[in-house]
Structure formats: structure tokens, C-alpha cells
Amino acid sequence: MANDSVMVIVAHPDDAEFLAGGATALWTRDGKEVIYVIVTNGDKGSEDPDITSEELAAVRRVEQQQAADGLGVAKVLFLGYEDGMLEPSLDLRRDLARVIRTHVPHTVVTFDPTVRFITDNYPNHPDHRATGDATLDAVFPAARDRLTFPELLAEGLTPHKVREVWLGAGSRANHWVDIEPVLSKKIAALKKHESQLAEMDLDEFIPQMAKDSAKGSPHTYAEGFRRVVLD
Ligand SMILES: [Zn+2]
Fold first, then answer.
1. Which of these, 77, 134, 174, 199, has the minimum number of CB atoms within 10 Å of its CB?
2. How far is the CA of 10 from the centre of ligand 1 (A)?
3. Ligand 1 center to residue 146 CA distance, Å?
């Protein structure tokens, strides 16, 4: 990856678009390389009694690829963990350190793992917390330190120091991206996740969400992040 590249690490197909679809559209528009890492296969997200987990995972993989294509994402990596069962395990930390060392991103975007409740009515999904925790731990210190996970070194993967981590879906934003110019791209990408969001009025919901996220910033529509610049 180029030295200004971005890796977005999330739990489920559709998370990346909610979390940073606007920022992603702007980064790729400006020529930055963006890679998505989708940790679980999303195989639990359906009320349809006629669909199996395997079928659902296949559908969601296609939807995620189409959404990413619409935003100009260079590559989507699917780690294939089981939806709803994710733990911030050492295996997950190693897998994430592996993709970070392989693709050497400048910036990693993920969930703020400290968020227990998104709103008073909406507990944060355990997979989101696990992904945020495992990603932070993979960035620092696992991907950076030579002697951590020596098996990665044996695979030829030398240490890599990520420069910035952007934590989204949190309440402690210190950095906002003005997504007004790409709001329609974010909405179009989310509409690709038909198996999940067909019932939702995204043309209404996403602008409102972006307005709420912009509070505290000079923007009308934004994605907010807690931006952590590593020493
Ligand atoms: Zn999710």
C-alpha cells in the first residue's frame, strides 16, 4: 500500500459504510488506497426462516463487494469469523496483525471499543467492541513489535508501525470529516446491503445520522472519529 493508505477494519458487512463510507469516498476520490477488512461473515443477520447461514454469508459477501466497489475501495478482505461470536482473542489479534503487516496502512479505522451503548436505546454490538479491541491491540503493539507473534516474522512479515488510528461510532470525537459532497455516495453504497437494510429509509436516516455526528464540528453532515496519532 502507498504511504498514505487506509485500512478500515470492521465486524460485519455494512459496518464500513455506516462507520466511514463518506470518508472512504473522499479518500479514494483523492487517490488514496483504501482496503476493507471484514472480520465476520455476517451469517446471523436475517429473520428469513428459509435462508441458511451459508447462503446468507454468500449474499452478504457479494453485497459488501458491490458497496466497496461503488466507493472505490481497492480490496476487501474477508476473515470469515462467525457472526455474533467474536471475542478479542489472541488468534484474532494475530490475524489482524498479519493483515496490517501485509498491507502496511498509514491509518487504521475501526470501532471505538470503549463504547458500551451507542444510544440509550441501542447497546453496541459485542462484535463491534471485540473488533475495536483486537484491532487496537494488533496495531499496538503486535504489528509493531518484532518479537510479538514470531510466527508472522517467519512468514516474512516484518513489523509495521501504523501512524494513526481513527475510532468511529463513539461519543468522544475529536476529528470530523465533512461528508456533504459524498453523502449520496455513502447512501448508494449502503443500499447495496439489501439483505440488511431494505426496510430502512436510508435517504432519511443517513443524512440525519450525519447531522447528529456533525454536532460539535463546523460541518452540516459529518463522520466523527476519535483520531489517535501514535508516537
Ligand atoms: Zn455491525
1. 199
2. 7
3. 32
Give bridge partners of residue 35 from the DSSP assignment. 7, 75
Quote the ligand 1 centre to 19 CA distance (angstroms): 9
- The one-letter code for the residue type at 91 is D
Length of the chain: 231
Per-residue pLDDT of 1-29, as tens digits, reads: 567 899 999 999 999 999 999 999 999 99
CB 185 within 8 A of CB 25: yes
Q: Give pTM, 2 decimals.
A: 0.97
Q: Is residue 1 part of a domain?
A: no
pLDDT tens string 143-179: 999 999 999 999 999 999 999 999 998 878 999 999 9
Domain count, the chain: 1
d(CA 85, CA 148): 25
Provide the CATH number for the domain around residue 95.
3.40.50.10320
Residue 125 CA, ligand 1 centroid: distance in Å: 7
